[in-house]
Amino acid sequence: MDIKQIQDLIRFVSKSGVNEVSIEQKDFKITIKTNETQPQLIHASIPAQTAPALVAAPVAAEPVAPAAPVGPDTSKYLTIKSPMIGTFYRSASPDKPLFVNVGDEIKTGSVVCIIEAMKLFNEIESEISGRIVKVLVDNSSPVEYDQPLFLVEPI
Predict the structure, then answer these.
(1) CB distance 147 to 122 below 8 Å
(2) pLDDT tens digit string along 43-88?
(3) Are the C-beta atoms of residues 111 and 92 closer than 8 Å to each other?
(4) Check: CATH 1.10.287.3510 for 78-153?
(5) Are strands 86-89 and 120-125 parallel, antiparallel or unpaired?
(6) What pTM was estimated for this model as a whole?
(7) Could you tell me the residue ranges of all domains in the chain?
């Protein structure tokens, strides 16, 4: 397990609401405990012969954002949410056009994106009709179940 994987694990644990996670492998053991403000790395041991250059560095939790300034009213928009956990893609492949862009009108059943889950590419169809106002997720980004993907203005 490299430092990037450890950092990703800490972020995941802090977002998931789990208080403690322990992982033990043949030559590696890590325990992560969280409190409400930031996760702490309690214990990690890696044999010197497997990773001599790896130095454990404290990983700070992402700062808590202050109250967001009042922005435009989004209550009049409908949200298309992710039906699953996976990786969000805006087109079928890098050389293909995007399924939808801001300003495009969509109808119920229109494919708006693909979510890859466990090497399966799932076309996500809109359950609403309207005009795409905002794309809330970057292409090739991981998404969670029920995460907002698009804001749609009903027509």
Answers:
(1) no
(2) 555 555 544 444 455 555 555 555 555 556 667 899 999 999 999 9
(3) no
(4) no
(5) unpaired
(6) 0.53
(7) 3-45, 78-153
